[in-house]
Design brief:
Distance between the termini: 28 Å
Number of helices: 11
Shape: globular
Structural class: mainly alpha
Largest sheet: none
Radius of gyration: 19 Å
Bound molecules: zinc ion
Length: 297
Amino acid sequence: MRGETTINTARPARPAKNPINWPMTLFMFSFHVGAVLAIFNFSWPALGTAVLLWWITGSLGIGIGYHRLLTHRGFKTPKYVEYFLTFCGALALEGGPIAWVATHRLHHANVERDGDPHSPRRGFWWSHMGWIVNGQSDHREVESKTSHVPDLAKDTFHLWISRWNFIPQIFLFAILYWVGGWPFVLWGICVRVVFSWHATCFVNSAAHVWGSRRFETNDDSRNNWWVALMTFGEGWHNNHHAHPASVRHGLAWYEIDINWIGIRALEKLGLATRLRLAGMPKRGESPDRDESLNEAA
Ligand SMILES: [Zn+2]
Ligand SMILES: [Zn+2]
């Protein structure tokens, strides 16, 4: 059941030219500087604010919203819930939903081959952040990406927030500064955003390099416990590549999956229906695989 080798042995070539994307690099560097300054502006309420916002943006926004709902359509939800989760995702500063979802659908469709935006077979740094700072990725750039997300591209809200995804952050900045001054801003925005950036990027890098493999998928995906802890369950990445549309990534009892618990809570509230689920393979049974990406694909 466990396999260390994969059939797909492609090694995608790097684009010939990799100029540094200076606006993106300086933008990300400034947040790292802010995260260092936060060490000298510590307070427990500021840390608590960062943790609360980390859950709102990382779990509700990225894990449940951008990934399990918008990318893979693992469950149905009313439009206002979809928009709320997307709004939380935009607050993570990982770009708007159109670019994020298009990038991730390309990852699944071309995994570890040419066309995979961030395969570690091009090098660990490339898969972690090199593809952002040295690549062509621009999460405000909408037009070229809409063909991969026809379901989002016809929605006015998703188009708007994809272009203006940094605007909610400006309002959050004002609220945090008003409530708690610079410590709240540095912890609630800089530390929280930088931590979430690396957490999400570790799914693309570490969870394709280190960890165990339950399913012999045609890629290098791994189940990585520490990436799962940083991402509310997204680190059970080999389970996910085997069952992309499943809303449940942690299949064993010890595979803690906070995002799955969140979707179950939405279901109990009547806000999530038609959940698509993968189960643990039974003893002696070969694991079933459903590599369809989403209902739209
Ligand atoms: Zn992956
Ligand atoms: Zn996915």
